[in-house]
Hints:
about 250 residues; mainly beta; Lipocalin; 18-stranded antiparallel beta sheet; two-stranded antiparallel sheet; about 10% helix; disordered N terminus
Amino acid sequence: MLRVRKVGLCLAVVFGAAAVTAASASAEAPEFGRCVKQAGGKFKTGSCTTAAVPGEERFEWLPGVVNGKFTTADKAGSLITFESVGGTKITCTNESAPGEVTGAKTLSVTLTFKGCETSKGQCTSPGQSAGTVVTSPLQGELGTIQKGAEPAKSKAGLELSPVGGGAFAECSVSTIHVPMRGSLIAGLAGNSMRTVYTIKYTESKGKQKPERFEGGPLAVLEWNTGLGYEQLGLKFTMILTAEEKIEVSTVN
């Protein structure tokens, strides 16, 4: 009986430690949340990046959001360009999407690009009007592009990938079917409460910048124009507008 009790105690300690580890992992920065005024809070400043000393406990960090809905649109007057390492390009005139922050590290969104064409004609997703490319439902996940000397100086990023795998998007140019697969990363401003985020997707000659989170696997787009898959970059400036102020914290 004593032995059984000891085994039970050991298992409780193991599972308890595992639960603590899991909780720590789930709350690992960067994460979406809110820095709110709260007497006795752990932080001194309204960005929840500076720890409070006695007498300065004014703000508290709350992971997640209350209303996570947002919309996206391209920056007015800018051109959206998909470019492969082989030099083929699709240009689009605008982008829009509804989306929602779904967790402390995740969001969901489906992007719609319009006015999309190549040198050989318009590129159109199945069931869409000419020149319209619609992605599959995408999941966004926060990660660290570059760790700073201190947490507040780390650079956060957002990776978009198709939910459940499969195609990122697909379109056809005349009789040529062009499937896209993979994911892509863009930097995301951190450590300040805001409703508007300017997200710059950057590429050069088909190479996305960045191509991975720090220490993580390659996360890039590819497409197939009939001669096999080749790497594909996306360049445009996305304006994300949330319905409430949200912060991407690299500290909490």
